[in-house]
Design brief:
The chain is α/β, with parallel strands linked by helices and about 200 residues long. About 30% of the residues lie in helices and about 15% in strands. It is globular and about 60 Å long.
């Protein structure tokens, strides 16, 4: 179920940060996708997730435990907020980036992510409305053969942002790195390590 909206203090904190990432979902349909998006949001340091429509809420009420893809409970730390308008939810100084298979869009491999971004994704069975696309600072697509699942699309976009940050925008990177990040992020049952090379 959705958590409360970002507090005014949280919005103010991210407004003064050098980077911020928000996800906007247009009328998502399934709790499994929203759960997967929340898990990805936790993995990639998203500041908040917003959605429009009622389909997700109605579906989540019918059996939230069977749809639990957010096994890391990112939803306890990252606000998931239902809104009437994604455009009205975009924080100041944050660029609107639409991610969908839209004619004229920029391929994701060629896209340069802005430090502060509000990424909007269309629903599983539709697309982003023209009124949102017309206000976008950029429209990008993932160049796949066929369309991906909604949660997979969000994961790919967020990974692309992280990978490109390693090459030139260190302020977009997580605070931890290397073995410290691996130890912090891995599952409790994972104690494996790379074998040291023989001399």
């Amino acid at each position: 179920m959705p958590t409360s909206a970002l507090s005014p203090q949280a919005m103010d904190d991210t407004a003064h940060s050098s980077s911020a990432v928000y996800i906007g979902l247009v009328n998502p349909k399934t709790p499994i996708n929203v759960g997967g998006i929340m898990r990805a949001s936790g993995c990639y340091g998203v500041d908040g997730v917003f959605y429009t429509g009622r389909r997700y809420e109605l579906a989540a009420r019918s059996g939230p435990l069977q749809y639990n893809a957010d096994t890391k409970n990112a939803g306890e730390r990252i606000p998931l907020t239902g809104v009437a308008s994604l455009l009205a939810a975009i924080p100041a100084d944050t660029q609107l980036i639409c991610v969908d298979l839209v004619v004229g869009a920029t391929p994701l491999p060629d896209f340069v992510h802005p430090p502060k971004a509000f990424y909007v994704f269309g629903p599983e069975d539709g697309t982003i409305g023209q009124e949102i696309i017309d206000k976008a600072d950029a429209v990008v697509y993932v160049p796949t053969v066929g369309c991906m699942n909604l949660a997979a699309s969000v994961n790919v976009l967020l990974y692309d942002r992280l990978a490109k940050a390693h090459r030139g925008a260190p302020d977009l990177l997580p605070r931890e790195s290397g073995d410290a990040l691996i130890r912090q992020s891995r599952d409790n049952n994972n104690r494996t390590r790379v074998k040291a090379p023989s001399l």
